[in-house]
Write a structure and sequence with these properties.
Length: about 550
Amino acid sequence: MPANGQGEINVDESESYSDTLASSEDEEAACLSRTIERSFTTTTLPADKLATIESLPSKRDHEAFFRECIDIMLREAIFEGTSRRTKVLDFKQPETLLKLLDFDLKAQPSSHSDLIKSLKDVIKYSVKTGHPYFVNQLFSSVDPYGFVGQMLTDALNPSAYTYEVAPVVILMEETVLREMRQIVGWPNGEGDGIFCPGGSMANGYAISCARHYYFPEVKTKGLHGLPKLVLFTSEDAHYSIKKLASFLGLGTENVHLVNTNSQGKMDPDHLEQLINTSLENGERPFMVSSTAGTTVIGAFDPIEKLADICKKNNMWLHVDAAWGGGALISKKHRNLLKGIERADSVTWNPHKLLTAPQQCSTLLVKHKNVLSEAHSANAAYLFQKDKFYDTQYDTGDKHIQCGRKADVLKFWFMWKAKGTSGLEQHIDKVFENAQYFYENIKQRPEFQIVIPEPECTNICFWYVPESLRMNSTEEFLDKLQNDGEYKEKLHRVAPKIKEKMMTEGTMMVTYQTYKEKPNFFRMVFQSSGLDKNDMLHLIQEFERLGQGL
């Protein structure tokens, strides 16, 4: 056999599943072998490549390949890719990367050795998002137990729509979602919930549920004949609220943006003003989408006050806790979401603050039947009512999707491994790291804080190079407010530092503007694998990269 482990096909010698059949099935297997051999005679593919066209693994053709691939992934992507001694990324410009990797798809199959090279190249030039110094997005880390759960999910390849094809993951989903609802504060975990392909879609489901709750006729008759429906969210809310309102036919102009205060929280007084104006204009306000952990600032809207307003005006209250929902598990920090039990629906992404592998997003709903009533289509070929088991576990009809990856398994495996107490310790650790980082940079003249006393693990700051430093924070803020040229110079600092950190590969931290503020950095901490030494290293790295600007 060639070194690439493929060799010529010989069905009689193959160690695939058919060879394990009992002797009573030998004749059937032999007949199948002859059929396969006859089908192969019509192909023009080289004989040593034929093993790659079957979508069934065989021990002879694939075991060594699997083991080598998994060994490379563990060594280079997992352990080296998360080591502090290695780079976060090996950045290349697009035109260079197109030449370095063989992206082309060819008519003929590739050899295993070529595939191994591609595997190594993909790892080499990908961003190591599990690296301790990848603090660029609202996800990070490679949780060891989540990783195993992810691999198991792909090995089993279930589609979670009926109990008959996915019995384990269906029950797993119901268990995890009920526990999450209980943590939210709904008695005995009552209500309903689904796993979604991302927090944006979870927010879209919430809008759909709210609309159906007040206007169930929309399912059959559409928007025609309905009053002008409007919803409200803060100016700092995730863009998915507008995007999904458009997708659902409500229109972005009917998403009214509520002012936020200096800490990024929704202003309840302004919300009431907007609702009153909407009613005077003959519109039908039906929903408020609040945020528990805004994307940039990490602000938590005042849920209790918003719940009072929604109750008064007969409106659905949604809480987008995609980012901040993990704080619910911590006794120290769950008060950030005080009043969340009064919400009608909650988006909560375990792949964010809890560091489950991507993607792992949920929508939790207080009202038990609204998901299925709003979205079911009763496809007769899937959801037969006369099955021999309890069909309440055929949960797929309340989803918009049919085929759906079982995102629950990796999170369940993590939770099973660590227990709720372990998840709580994780949350407490990342908040502790964020506070330590904040307290340190606050004392250094080269750092200026954008949002004082941050609530979540988002730490927003300006790095101020020596050429732009002032004698005090007061002088800095005055200069920023009144000197346009100074503001423009500071605006250009973050992109220059980001370019240096990307090309050197030492860390990844994002930057952005906010309202009228010039570019600043946003550190987001969610990996409990970091410690105080890492916080100091990140600070020192900013100081190094900012020299000479």
